[in-house]
Amino acid sequence: MTHLPPLPLALTMGDPAGCGPAITAAAWHQLRAEPGLAFYVIGAPALYAGMAPVREISAPSDALGVFAEALPVLPLADVPAVQPGQPDASAAPAIIRAIALATSHALAHQAGGLVTNPINKALLYGTGFAYPGHTEYVAHLCAAPGAPAPRPVMMLVGGGLRVALATIHIRLADVPGALDTAALVALGEIVAAALTRDFGLATPRIAFSGLNPHAGENGTIGDEEVRIINPAAHLLRQKGIDMSDARPGDTVFAEALAGAYDAVIAMTHDQGLIPVKTLDLWGGVNVTLGLPVVRTSPDHGTAYDAAAAGTARPDSLIAAIRLAAAMADARRATP
Ligand SMILES: NC(=O)C1=CN([C@@H]2O[C@H](COP(=O)(O)OP(=O)(O)OC[C@H]3O[C@@H](n4cnc5c(N)ncnc54)[C@H](O)[C@@H]3O)[C@@H](O)[C@H]2O)C=CC1
Ligand SMILES: NCC(=O)COP(=O)(O)O
To answer: Is the ipTM of this complex over 0.90?
Structure first.
């Protein structure tokens, strides 16, 4: 077994008007005594002033020596001054640069992985950001020269569940047309490989959820299960992956909680996120699978109201930091 030295995690500042600065400072207070969870944040030092002692660093490796005493901040230029709770589109270029820099640190093995603070997607779209979210943007940044971007898979971890998504930020009406047997096979392979590599499960058991009520009742109330999902499950089983046919969406998460499955692949964003957020509103983590770098995130958004009121909770960010560190450890042990 190879053991490479631990690296700090790179946190992005996220939307500076959102909860990111407050939860980052709060996470530092709670984690500063755990050197295995050392991190630095890429952002404007002023964002954290008054919430934590701040130390500017000039390279990711400086964070390890600083973390116990102060929040290590790698300064990002040109972050406009914003008010908590007051989104400001002029911050968009800096928000995007922080994500790009953190990803480059992880790709260069200067950071063990990246943990992204929440962004306001509509605000970024309004300034021309061409990606649905971090998931697809980080994948784009991970593309090798001349090669297509790796296919990223969003998985939520929380409340005793792991739930990967077959479709993410698309209209519900577009979901049936977006489901495709070959794509579900590729998705199942990515989820199975990640559960082994990053979560230490030698032979993970995975379930597809159905799209239609009762998983389509044998094609009588929707045929995506018999036409698309079950054929993908069959092909995955032929590849040696323990994959169920489509299970009814109203029971598959209870089955997973009871121990029948290590992960569920949900067909839509809300089908997957509702059980995780209902079971674990504060502690859920969003993980991107299928990338050469570790990337996690809190599963909540910018929470402008909590940012303005000073009531933002760091629980989900802390869970995201813990999970990223565990995944980075697993990859260091078996690169
Ligand atoms: N990973 C990311 O960057 C994500 C970004 N978003 C973005 O967040 C923005 C706001 O989305 P919403 O649907 O309002 O979801 P939200 O998660 O920001 O807020 C929903 C409710 O939960 C509360 N809440 C969320 N996190 C909290 C925390 N840490 N502490 C205390 N209260 C908290 C909020 O105050 C609000 O009442 C959107 O622009 C969306 O694009 C949403 C989800 C993930
Ligand atoms: N609802 C989850 C979400 O919006 C996270 O998206 P991403 O920014 O992690 O791609």
So the answer is: yes
